[in-house]
Amino acid sequence: MRARELHIWKVAEVERCCFRVKCFGYQVIMFWCAFVVFFLALGNELHLSHATEVSVNNTENKLCLYANLMVNFSVTYEVGVNKSETVLFVLPGNVTTEGSICNNTTSTLKLGFGDGHSWAVDFTKDNKTYQVDSIVFTYNLNDSSIFTNSTSNETKSVTAKPRITNVGVDTYYSCKSENVQRVESVTQTLYDVTLQAFVTNGSKSDTDTVCTADLTSTTVAPTTTVTTTAAPTSTPTPTLPTPTTGNYSIAPDFNSTACLMATFGLRIGFKQGDKVETINLVPSATEVGGACGVNSSILILTSDTIDIMFTFSNDSKKFHLHALNVTVKPATGVAVVAANTNMSIWVAAVGSSYMCNKEQTLTVTETLTLYTFKLRVQPFGVEKGEFATAEDCGDDTTGSWIVPIAVGVALAVLILIVLITYFIGRKRNQGSSYEHF
Fold it and tell me: Treating both helix axes as pointing N-terminal to C-terminal, what angle do 3-17 and 31-47 enclose, rounded to 10 degrees?
């Protein structure tokens, strides 16, 4: 089943199984619907976590290249005049190795897949070590199963230069941590990588060269909840100054106005063992990247100490922050990597912006918390490079209690009226019975 057909089936299945009961203007979604949505979401996450394992033999039919890895792709492409869309897909398990080459000092692992797509890794070797010189990703925009409504039928290539170096000869490169490569409108994310070139004895080595990230980082598994409550009690009162407010924007090209805008100050609290530390994002030392899509937009902020990716979703009526990926690289201690891919915060109508001037606390994982200051964001529908009318978080906070309180009061009054009516009726009936006898 193709990815798009699978998505359509999921939507149809949710609509079929979900039935709603309306009560005082609220919709109560039954448990079975929640179960199916959870199951399908889990299936989708599994679909995006497929490993690719390949072996390449030389002219003597002996193993010379080996790879077992996962690669996720994010590609932004044009779907109309000044309109673009971002699509996410993975390197599948079913690939070809045609075009792979094994030589004494240079080798190429080339994986072909789909309708004209390929992913190629170039290696070079000296006496004691080898390294990856480049990764060339080629994608065919004429493949409508992935690039729906693309205005181009070109085949494009981007070249990334990952930091995979000093791998010992007769060892394999091992890296569980994410290795993110961003070039132009393409983001490639490598993880759970096992890679060996220049195999000399015809079989994969039992010895590995572990990547630096695995040796110095603590990776936190993604969670499925997010709260906006106060930070954990173990978090000390921040001693840092209030973070500087940064202005961040993404434009489709140099000649276009912004399609995504955000302003905020950002502080991150993270655990180092039993100790909780905090760090501020410095806007002047931060690079901005990302992409604007019809249904998904991404803002990426990168500095020497903090890498953070915000993923926003659009359901045509409302937008919200859907996912956060954060890496903190403190001056001392180990790096901390955290992710949450099932969020629904910073909600506002498409065509509006979301604003929250007060400090917000977002618990991403048990070990990492975000603090935002003077936040305003608009990931969709930006016109003339200016924010649209804002929906304020203060209004959401106070307004969200009005309807539940009103419903509670109405129910209490209704119950009281029913009880009074019952007792009055009963008393009258008893009086009538005494007169009859």
Answer: 170
